[in-house]
């Protein structure tokens, strides 16, 4: 609708209204902002720690690789002016998403979670992105993270409230 396009010309959700009335877009930025605005919430490791560095690394990695690959797969017409190029864009999106999941899976060797030993909102972001994969994600470490998110009292309740499928 026109009112939403005025808020976010990219026509993408989510949008967060900040306390001063300004609007924030970009899901990864919103997640990082919420963690920083609530430093004692356990959403993310404390700033300045190695775990926080891992948290930031994976948040940015997921936003620029997984999320973008998902958009190429599901909205390929945005990435080509030639309709004949749509299948190639979709295939490249799916391949890049699979490669990105494999890289994250390897990064979880130091885990069990993205930031280390504690579940964070980065893991919830990963769990959601896994549901958008065109192919089922089968890596055991990734599945373990998603199961931990779903089992968590806070993240899991949001998961169920919004009917997110696995």
What labels would you give this structure?
166 residues, 58% helix, mainly alpha, 4% strand, globular, 7 helices, two-stranded antiparallel ribbon, single chain
The portion of residues forming beta strands comes to under 5%
Order of helices and strands: HEEHHHHHH
| Fraction of helical residues | 55-70%
Task: Tell me the overall shape.
Answer: globular
Biggest sheet features: 2 strands, antiparallel
Flag low-confidence runs.
none
In round numbers, the mean pLDDT is: 93
Give an account of the 3D structure:
By secondary structure, this protein is mainly α. It is built from seven helices and two strands. It has helices at residues 2-7, 27-37, 50-74, 86-107, 121-131, 140-151, 153-161; strands at 15-17, 23-25. A two-stranded antiparallel sheet has the order 1-2. A hairpin with a 5-residue loop joins strand 1 and strand 2 (23-25). Helix 5 (121-131) packs across helix 6 (140-151) and helix 6 crosses helix 7 (153-161). The longest helix is centred in the middle third of the chain and has 25 residues, at 50-74. The protein is globular. The relative contact order is 0.11.
């Amino acid at each position: 609708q026109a009112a939403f396009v005025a808020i976010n010309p990219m026509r993408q959700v989510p949008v967060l209204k900040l306390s001063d009335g300004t609007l924030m877009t970009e899901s990864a930025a919103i997640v990082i902002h919420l963690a920083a605005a609530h430093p004692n919430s356990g959403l993310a490791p404390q700033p300045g720690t190695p775990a926080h560095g891992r948290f930031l690394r994976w948040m940015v990695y997921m936003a620029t690789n997984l999320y973008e690959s998902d958009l190429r797969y599901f909205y390929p017409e945005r990435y080509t002016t030639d309709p004949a190029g749509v299948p190639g864009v979709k295939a490249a999106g799916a391949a890049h998403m699979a490669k990105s999941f494999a890289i994250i899976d390897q990064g979880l060797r130091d885990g069990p979670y993205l930031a280390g030993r504690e579940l964070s909102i980065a893991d919830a972001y990963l769990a959601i992105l896994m549901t958008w994969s065109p192919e089922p994600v089968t890596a055991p470490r990734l599945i373990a993270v998603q199961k931990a998110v779903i089992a968590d009292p806070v993240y899991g309740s949001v998961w169920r409230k919004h009917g997110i499928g696995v």
